Amino acid sequence: MLTFDNVRFQYAVEDFSIIDHLSFEVQDGEFVSIIGASGCGKSTIFRLVNKLFTPASGVIRVDGESIETKKNYCGYMPQQDLLFPWRTVRENLMLPMEIQGGYSKEQMQKKADDALRSVGLADWGDKTPKELSGGMRQRAAFARTVLTGSDLLLLDEPFSALDYLTRLSMREWLLEQWEKEKKTVLFITHDVEEAVFLSSRILVVEQSPITHLRSIEVPAGYPRSREELRRPEILSLKEELIGMLKKEKA
After folding, report:
1. Residue 51 neighbours by CB under 8 Å, 6+ apart
2. Strands laid side by side in the 57-62 sheet
3. CATH fourth-level superfamily of 2-73+152-249
4. Can you give the pLDDT at residue 79?
5. Domain boundaries, the chain
6. Confidence of residue 13 (pLDDT cuts 50, 70, 90)
7. 3-class SS shares of the chain: helix, strand, coil, % to 5
8. What is the distance between the alpha carbons of residues 42 and 59, in angstroms, rounded to a whole number?
9. How far are the Cα atoms of 111, 127, 244 from residue 92, in angstroms, in the given order?
10. How far is CA 139 from the centre of its chain?
11. Percent of the chain having pLDDT more than 90?
12. Where are the alpha helices (DSSP H) in 10-133?
């Protein structure tokens, strides 16, 4: 699905690379998290995938093709929901289809309403974003991301601004949506427990610049429950990951 092949990137004002000859793969249908210390370059990887940044060298491929010539190949959900306050929730979800073109207004409204129903917001389409709770806004933002029609979703710490209990419920909700939509998800988080609970595989940033990502399989299947986080092998994995992050920060 997604391949980084010897990718290098540096900011124009810097004389060193943030990402230096990085190669890794994400397979079709995987839920993969990237974890690492703040400022290590995790979000830079996303900005390279969605072409906000351009590599100095190397190739990024989706489905075997360079992203240089591809369109609508990924959906991106940042930390903030970025719902437009002057639009209704339904109109916010219609935005990706308006940008892509080729849809009638009735088609866009139906797709938006179907998406709202799938995320439990069927009765909220006519509301404005300020009338929704934080968790509801994130669900609406996720639905909008899915409506890009892309099989690859980039989720950049989407729950970081939510309170603890809301984050717990949103993690379970996100897994339900992933199992239903069958998308490929690349997820950035600082939260080790979140990464372990959600992911089939975790990519760890161990150094800066990023020259490689250490890949660790999560020893748990799906569907997944919070009770599984108490299993000895999961507790051991969490401690291993925390130790790796402490070492990186030091």
Report:
1. 67
2. 19-26, 2-9, 57-62, 65-66
3. P-loop containing nucleotide triphosphate hydrolases (3.40.50.300)
4. 83
5. 2-73+152-249, 81-149
6. confident
7. 40, 20, 40
8. 18
9. 12, 11, 40
10. 13
11. 62
12. 42-49, 89-100, 105-118
**pLDDT of the residue at 249:** 67
Residue type, 183: K
> Residue 31 pLDDT more than 90?
yes
For residue 139, count CB atoms less than 10 angstroms from its CB and return exposed for 0-12, middle for 13-18, buried for 19 or more. Answer: buried
pTM for this model (two decimals)? 0.89
**Cα–Cα distances in Å, from 186 out to 15, 43, 74?**
29, 11, 10
pLDDT in tens, 89-124: 999 999 999 998 889 999 999 999 999 998 889 999
Mean pLDDT to the nearest integer, 136-163:
89
CA pseudo-torsion sign 41, 44, 49, 53 = negative
Q: Which residue has tokens 């998308």?
A: 183
**Length of the chain, in residues:** 250
* DSSP tag of 210: B
